[in-house]
Design goal:
By secondary structure, this protein is mostly helical. 26% of the residues lie in helices and 6% in strands. The longest helix is centred in the last third of the chain and has 7 residues, at 44-50.
Length: 70
Amino acid sequence: MYAVEFRAMVKNGVIEIPPEYRDKLQENVKVIILTEEKQERSDIIGKLLDSPLKIADFEPIPRAEIYERS
């Protein structure tokens, strides 16, 4: 038995076999599909990293000023 592994997107129920494997996969094949589940972030930092807030005229505090405040 010959085995290959590759990542692919499913488009309209079809998985395209990469060109480098097509010659070796001409007949019947056994298919095992592994999907990656999306992990939802529940913390506010994760949500902000995924979808940052856009604030007009925002200017981050300079590093030196941050240390002056502490």
